[in-house]
Amino acid sequence: MTQNSPIPDMQRVGTPPLAPPKKSLSTGAIIAIVVGSLIALCCVLGTVVVLASGGDTDKSTSVAATDNPPTSPEAAASNTVPSPAPAVEPEGPATVKVGQAINVKFLNDETRVTVKSIKKAKSPNQFTQPKRGQFVAVMVDIFATKGDTDLGPSNFRLVAKDGTVYKAEFLVVDIDPQLEAMTTVNEGQRKNGNVVFDVDPDKVAGAKVELTDDFGDVQGYWTA
Predict the structure, then answer these.
(1) What pLDDT band is residue 64 in, cutting at 50, 70 and 90?
(2) Can you give the pTM of this predicted structure?
(3) Do residues 199 and 92 lie in contact, with contact meaning Cβ atoms separated by under 8 Å?
(4) Under a CB-based contact definition with an 8 Å cutoff, are residues 153 and 195 in contact?
(5) Cα 76 to chain center, whole Å?
(6) What CA–CA distance (Å, rounded) separates 136 from 203?
(7) 4 phi and psi, to 5 degrees?
(8) What is the spatial distance between Cα 147 and Cα 108, in angstroms, rounded to a whole number?
(9) Three-state secondary structure call for residue 135
């Protein structure tokens, strides 16, 4: 009888065969795994960035689409209705219509002066006739509101439209009543009368009456 070897007998009684030894990963396989992992990580990060930017875009779009967008302080200031500028007082002497008063202040005295009318006039005296062609009578009223005043005919002038200035005449007869000269008007009192001018006939239209104080400073004008 032939004698069998012991190893085959052990296999027959159910002993499992020995597993083959495991093979280690090569260097190329390791590099491929690392590169693949990096590529996958980059794809994930890119997706996150795209989603985040898309959220901001939607947010800005929703703000722009609202009916009442927020208003900046600069825009609110530009939409504010500007307040009206304060009234500016005109510089220089006042100009009023005939019949209105002008207040004259001289030192501590105050006087209210009114030109009542401006009219052409004639003298019946043949020895008192205008040298320039036409007498103009200006009726004035002088009222001392505070202190005393010495305003008289010498404080008035007639200024033609072209700028020609005419001074008052003092020796015109029969154009009455004439404003007295060198007469002091006490506080609360008044005097009135005509101031007469000798004027070129073609310069009467559009002429205005000028008033000066005792220093010669113009206080105002009257126009017809």
Answers:
(1) very low
(2) 0.60
(3) no
(4) yes
(5) 18
(6) 11
(7) -80, 160
(8) 7
(9) strand
